[in-house]
# Entry
Amino acid sequence: MTSAPATQPRFLTLEGGEGAGKSTVLAALRDALLADGEDVVCTREPGGTPLAERIRELLLAQSNEVMDPHTELLLVFAARAQHVAQVIRPALARGAWVVCDRFTDSSFAYQGAARGLDMAFIAELERGAVGIVPGLTLLLDLDVASARERTRGRDLLGDAVPDRIESERDAFFERVREGFRLRAASDPRRIRTIDAGLSAGLVASEAVAILSQYREGLA
Ligand code: TMP
# Structure
């Protein structure tokens, strides 16, 4: 049995459903850290390395073959293992901050809460194949109807077709949301929830305020 995953104080993650505004918050956190002269690496999951981005394409592509939930889970963790080894651990080791759009909490919410896979098995993959936990996670919480509205607007603007996971029904995203909220409730020190229904500017400034308070706590 491998040991419990180690918390990394300079590792920050953003979580939430689609359309919650993670990109804006990521940019605001990066700018706040850069303004203080910090070394910052911004990245995303699934993805973040060439191989992990190829796995992302497999995960999100529409296909006539239904993807088994365990295939989905193992692909997500295959991408994560590569990303952690190639990008996240080296950056943390040199003292950089890493700001990551999604991480293992997404697997607990999407593959665990929404697909119904065994949470203990996901935790075992986390321990065995990932080994790290963020010091701070910001959960951008948004109701499913508002999230749909936002992603629809984005897809219309970019003429984009919804990907395989975006094409799930509302009930799936309700379970994702509940999964995130339960995780936040069980680990309120690490996972801080922000009401993503507020304006993008307010959400970003709240995120920056939480980061600054968190950094004071580390000092
Ligand atoms: P994105 O829309 O934030 O770029 O994320 C890509 C999709 O991948 C999104 O639908 C959530 C999903 N996902 C999982 O299902 N499990 C995971 O562990 C991660 C990181 C993402």
